[in-house]
Sequence to fold (535 residues):
Amino acid sequence: MQEVAVLGVGMHRFGKTGDAIVGTKSVKALCQHAVTAALKDAGVEWKQIQAVSAASSRFSGGKGWGLNGNDVVEDMGSTGIPVYNLSAGCAAGGNAFNIGYSLVAGGIHDMVLVVGGEVMPKGMIQTSGVEEATDPEFLRQRCIGMPGPSFWSTLARRRMFEYGTTEEQFSQVAVKARKNSVHNPYARFQKEITLEDVMNSPYVSNPLRLFQICPVSNGAAAVVICSKERAKQFTSKPVMVASSTVATMTFDDMLPRGLADPITDCPNLHTEAQNAVTRAFEKSGIAPGDVSFTELQDNTCYYELAFPEEWGLCQAGESESLLEAGETTPTGRMPINPSGGFVSFGEATTAMGVFQIAELTWQLRGEAGGRQVPDAKVGLAQTLGLGGNATAAILTR
Amino acid sequence: MTEERVPCVEGLFSEKDGVATLHGSRCTGCGTPYFPKSEACHNPDCSESKMEDADFGGKGVLWSYSVADFPPPPPHIYDEPFTPYAMGVVDMECGLRLIGQLVDKAEDVKVDANVELLIDTLYHKDGKAFTSWKFKQL
Fold:
């Protein structure tokens, strides 16, 4: 196995179709911007890239078949290199990073581009549009009408029931996230908001309010990775990948995903994420207590409270007190989403796993400016996607 | 004249004499219940994976709930004007954690409440009432 280094990262700032940030840019244009930035950051020429691992979008680009990596190669120059297009719902970006990592670690290729980009349709994420009784998402929306925000709200309400979490505490997570985003030039929202702003925002699905849920966004992210040996030609201090994992959910999982699930005694609701993160710790020999900061998938503020407990970063029921003590801020004991997270970026679904690697890299290099985690040595990233997909990565300096 | 009641998806559930029944399946090997019907058993410790049709219904306990404060996107269909509704996740006595709308007003819904399954109207179209399964607090 080769040790894998992150040589360069790049992003296109996230925005909303028609705004001053992304305007009417296509996913190809957003990806090209991010890839060009990552190559420049790495000091690598396009012709040195030996393979592309790309997240597949089902929303835009990719010739309608999720061939987004092929779009990137064409626009950068058709050099004939292998392209891997990966599909894993919202975990696709993390999945693409893992395949890129595996290609380098396994000695198959030694300069790989990982990319994810998205131009999202407006509003709540819809089903595939196929009205078939064999599609569980169609059944769920036709028979009940439970889009993402309502699903997250049932989880948030359960936490309120079990731990006494208040709506104000969910709001505090959003306030903290947006405070970090002020210092992130790639975030869609870069303005602070107050507790009152969050509490006065309308319910999207009671108990969760507009500012506690990530909207959909357009954006792109790219990273260039190679072996530790190869990296020496470009930099004396590369950021290293300690581990990269992919996992799926286990049978005993009790998250209400389809219409119904068999009842088990499993206390964990997101076994795919727990499996991915646990395996990332095991493979790297790094313990939860060694983590300097975490970038996790906060589609809603609920996850910032639930995930650290499910992964052993803190005790069950402890998240609220850590939040209130300021321990989840960049200067706290357990910094969560110093980037501002999904709540500040919005979700450009397949870009998210790659965006997290970019943020981990900037933090570990000490280049994160006003959102910098002091003396960051170990960063943890995690994604979660439809179908019971999850990924994790641990990066070190 | 009573309006014609039609399931919003054919074959998924039925109602008879006011009793709601969900049509799913069960693994004869390990007893795991599935709704809707499953092609195969998902239990990795079950080598049998033989599915037989099974009906589910009855009562359960509300694990959690949320409220649709905005109309969900298609393929959901609702009667205009949109009325916010509560939807629940229920741990049923039959061994399923099942989701469904609640007929109770959102402000009356309580986590941990005992509920029962029923069939109720979801929307109207072409002069017919299209139905789904829902929960009612006891």
In short: The mean pLDDT of chain A is 96. Chain A has 13 helices and twelve strands.
